[in-house]
Amino acid sequence: MCANNSFNTLPEDFPPGHVVSAEGGRGRPVMWVSEEAGPALRRWWERMYDDHLRTGLYPLLLDSSVDIDLLGAAPTTDVIERVPGDQLIREYFDYSGNGWPGFAPAKRLSVHPGYAAGRLAAEAPDTTRLALVPSIRSADTPALIGWTGAMDYTWDVEKISAVLRTWEDRFGIRVVRLGSTTLELSVAAPPSTLTEARRITLEHAGFCPSIWQEEVALDSYATSLVKRPVWRFQWA
């Protein structure tokens, strides 16, 4: 959490909303959520994104499928920092019995991460609500709010955020939209070749094994990643 993260400092003309606590209201306050949805919230997302380093409040777009009463335990930033970035992926490959070559190298940014995030935010449907999470890093937000979207794969959401931190550092990803079981990331440094995309595909597999649904092959999935500025995941 950030020191400068008071929800009381929101602009006077800010949309109506309320503070949400984790664990169905039994835990600590973890985010502010707008009461209504609509295109105006996307414009507020842009304003709050541009200002999040000052406010300490990172904006997310929440799909209508998100039930805030089903938020789970919300680990703190300290817990995320103690999780190795490759732990979730390595556990997946250890379980499957296949070797993992390690993380793909970092890529040079193709665009500014904020620009890539803004383009994805602009595509959000009118049913999307705005959330503000006390965090500087977008990667930490799923864990900090107690998101349970990957619970059919892992209950330890800090492992999800630990992977996202590595992608934030290497590929300029930003967490933009969350659904009940979905996660949408903007990518400022997507792979530019099939060889690069194959390595990243292995990371995606360890992060969300559901990418293999409908018998998707490694090369076909990797091809879809080349120069693609959005990564979408669904756990189900």
TrEMBL record:
Span of domain DUF4253: 129-235
Pfam families in alphabetical order: DUF4253
Protein name from the UniProt record: DUF4253 domain-containing protein
Species assigned in the record: Nocardia macrotermitis
Lineage of origin: Bacteria, Bacillati, Actinomycetota, Actinomycetes, Mycobacteriales
